[in-house]
Design a protein that fits this description.
By secondary structure, this protein is an alpha+beta fold. 34% of the residues lie in helices and 18% in strands. It has 5 helices and 5 strands; from the N terminus they run ββαβββαααα. Strand 1 and strand 2 form a beta hairpin. The structure holds FE2/S2 (inorganic) cluster (2 copies). One FE2/S2 (inorganic) cluster binds next to loops.
């Protein structure tokens, strides 16, 4: 088995780790680096539980190879601290289960970082990247709307 020693830039730190060429970024984040906030759900790009930011844009880490992230800035839920989106999730009761929430927050945080003036339809489209199997999306949409309205 070919092992590679690589440096990953993650949450503002440089982490040295040993990977196989076929390791997904999600696997390396969780198993090598011990950052378990990004969740393994479907493992085929559908559910969004594994969403991280790569250079500020949301990516499903279960369908990205770790070697593709070399030289890029990776942010996981552990790398966010007291963001407007995290506070808004709490205040709008959008913090649902611990499994889907990290992915929702990463996705919604990226939306707020890149687009301040968007319609409710765009928010709904953006939220299609993440699945919640058990509750609703209304509170999450309200959390995003609150942050976007505050940034105007
Ligand atoms: S675990 Fe990555 S999209 Fe579902
Ligand atoms: S899957 Fe997390 S609240 Fe439904």
């Amino acid at each position: 088995m070919n092992l590679l020693q690589v440096i990953l830039h993650i949450n503002g730190e440089e982490r040295v780790t040993t990977i196989r060429a076929a390791d997904t970024l999600l696997h390396v984040i969780r198993e090598n680096l011990g950052l378990t906030g990004s969740k393994p759900g479907c493992l085929n790009g559908d559910c969004g539980a594994c969403t991280v930011l790569i250079d500020g844009l949301p990516i499903k880490s279960c369908i990205m190879l770790a070697i593709e992230a070399i030289g890029r800035e990776i942010t996981t839920i552990e790398g966010l601290e007291d963001t407007h989106m995290q506070k808004s999730f709490v205040e709008n009761f959008a913090f649902q289960c611990g499994y889907c929430t990290p992915g929702f927050i990463m996705n919604c945080h990226a939306l707020a970082q890149h687009h301040s003036h968007v319609s409710d339809e765009v928010i709904e489209d953006w939220l299609h990247s993440n699945l919640c199997r058990c509750t609703g999306y209304e509170e999450i949409k309200n959390a995003v709307r609150t942050v976007l309205d505050q940034s105007e």
